[in-house]
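Task: sequence design from structure.
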């Protein structure tokens, strides 16, 4: 046991046995430990009234993907044989308070025809066909655009609808035809019945009415393609040095066609770096005024096929569970204080050039792929607390990030869904930790990011390379930030400590008159994925408890392996 932990536990004899202290008298050892514990306990935070920037609540959105391979997404959350969500799934969606939802893809969107997801399409059977995804797998279309947009209306959530861009970019169809196809989806979603449409376009509003929806859905956001960087290699083979110009011409054609149906829509396009070098910059330069947001995705750590420490491979089963936990907390980048940030080229470019970013997919997305004995920790709960680091990073970058869509909202196979649903409808659905984490912040946050000063926050070094997780020199055990609205001030804190609860002091005196009763919202859970005897299937849980103080300084304990939101009420 470490010197600090023995001191915190009031155990000088453990220090003597471990050789961590010289042979002092028992009384001297107690004095040493008391002094060390006092120093260690003086972790403090001071919330300032200074507003750094605004946090758009849509940063806590979700991605309702409908994939075809390895997972069927929301299709698995339906009452079998129907197009209706299972009642338990719908109830959980209502509780999440989701501000914005993206649909339907994902990789498959660039390989499918949107018309397969609505009824009564001309020159086709009235019922929806089964579609083939980009890897050749089949997927039903029981949950289509009418079901999705009706759900958004029911939940009070905005919608992001993604259109097929590969058809144009790789010349699967002539550019004019591909752009018109995307515009037809805008017409189905947004054009009023009787609207004058582009010459030659089918009367999609009347078809929508025939399908049971007369009035427009008024979708605000349309995204042109998904992860189009994946097509750029082929595009460059086809276009050579003219690839940026052709890419930009395709985007412009889509915008013109889609806005000819509804001029009010806002457009999201890919802003991902990588092999998009030169292309995204050309799009920004030529079409920046026409584009609402540039999209990027953040996933980590992906498959962990080996573990390195100081450049040498380490057997996974030899790594202590605490070391794995601390590594899995480190999926973002970190600032000089050890706090989660997004020091990413796309974020930096957005700040320099004054445009907004939409993180239309993100999650703690990883799994062990190691041969032999399995590691000491493989915890979905650890992934959920790791995902909280992304949320803190998004909030710190909310001067440019306005929208976030956590992947994926409903599913049962990939392990990154917010709601686990049984496709047979025999087992009740339950929340998964990463989705619960975003729900926790969506339910408890303010729209102003406040300045926050900290003292004596302990840190640790993370030495392992695990897939996309890289070594980090400094990570704060307590990653805290503060937000506020007109009625409340919120103190958000991730306690990354594996075993230690942390006593902290929060100074809120800058706000003058604050009620002497705060509410401590806490997210906690178990490390084991499978429930033990008398344990629920759901891994994470939230609770709240009162915290009384003098209205100026609150002393409180943050449980180990937890996320807290302490809610203060202004008088």
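Answer:
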């Amino acid at each position: 046991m470490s010197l600090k932990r023995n001191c915190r536990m009031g155990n000088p004899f453990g220090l003597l046995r471990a050789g961590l202290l010289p042979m002092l008298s028992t009384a001297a050892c107690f004095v040493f430990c008391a002094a060390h514990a006092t120093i260690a306990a003086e972790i403090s935070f001071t919330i300032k009234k200074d507003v750094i920037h605004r946090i758009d609540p849509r940063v806590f959105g979700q991605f309702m993907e409908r994939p075809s391979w390895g997972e069927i997404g929301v299709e698995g959350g339906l009452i079998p044989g129907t197009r209706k969500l299972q009642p338990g799934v719908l109830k959980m969606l209502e509780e999440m308070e989701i501000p914005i939802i993206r649909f339907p893809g994902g990789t498959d969107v660039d390989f499918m025809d949107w018309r397969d997801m609505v009824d009564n399409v001309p020159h086709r059977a009235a019922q929806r066909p089964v579609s083939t995804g980009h890897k050749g797998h089949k997927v039903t279309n029981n949950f289509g655009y009418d079901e999705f947009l009706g759900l958004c209306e029911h939940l009070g959530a905005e919608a992001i609808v993604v259109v097929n861009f590969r058809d144009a970019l790789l010349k699967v169809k002539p550019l004019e035809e591909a752009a018109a196809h995307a515009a037809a989806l805008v017409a189905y979603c947004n054009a009023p019945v009787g609207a004058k449409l582009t010459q030659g376009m089918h009367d999609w509003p009347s078809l929508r009415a025939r399908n049971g929806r007369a009035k427009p859905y008024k979708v605000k956001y349309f995204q042109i393609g998904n992860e189009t960087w994946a097509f750029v290699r082929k595009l460059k083979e086809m276009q050579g040095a003219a690839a940026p110009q052709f890419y930009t011409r395709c985007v412009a054609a889509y915008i013109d066609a889609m806005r000819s149906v509804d001029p009010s829509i806002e457009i999201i396009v890919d802003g991902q770096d990588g092999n998009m070098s030169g292309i995204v910059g050309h799009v920004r330069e030529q079409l920046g005024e026409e584009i609402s947001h540039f999209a990027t995705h953040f996933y980590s750590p992906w498959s962990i096929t080996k573990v390195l420490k100081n450049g040498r491979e380490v057997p996974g089963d030899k790594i202590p569970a605490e070391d794995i936990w601390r590594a899995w907390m480190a999926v973002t980048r970190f600032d000089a204080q050890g706090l989660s940030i997004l020091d990413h080229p796309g974020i930096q470019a957005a700040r320099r050039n004054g445009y907004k970013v939409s993180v239309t997919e993100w999650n703690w997305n990883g799994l062990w792929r190691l041969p032999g004995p399995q590691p000491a920790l493989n915890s979905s709960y650890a992934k959920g607390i790791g995902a909280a680091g992304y949320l803190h990073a998004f909030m710190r970058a909310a001067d440019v990030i306005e929208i976030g869509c956590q992947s994926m909202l409903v599913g049962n196979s990939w392990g990154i869904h917010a709601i686990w649903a049984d496709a047979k409808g025999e087992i009740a659905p339950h929340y998964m930790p990463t989705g619960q984490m975003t729900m926790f912040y969506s339910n408890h946050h303010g729209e102003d990011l406040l300045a926050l000063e900290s003292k004596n926050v302990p840190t640790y070094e993370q030495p392992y390379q695990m897939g996309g997780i890289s070594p980090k020199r400094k990570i704060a055990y307590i990653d805290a930030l503060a937000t506020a609205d007109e009625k409340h001030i919120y103190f958000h804190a991730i306690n990354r400590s594996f075993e230690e609860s942390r006593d902290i002091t929060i100074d809120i005196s800058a706000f003058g008159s604050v009620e002497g009763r705060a509410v401590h919202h806490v997210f906690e859970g178990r490390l084991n994925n499978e429930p033990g005897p008398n344990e629920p299937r759901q891994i994470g849980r939230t609770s709240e408890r009162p915290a009384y103080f003098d209205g100026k300084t609150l002393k409180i304990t943050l449980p180990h392996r937890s996320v807290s939101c302490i809610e203060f009420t202004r008088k």
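The first strand starts at residue 43 and ends at 54.
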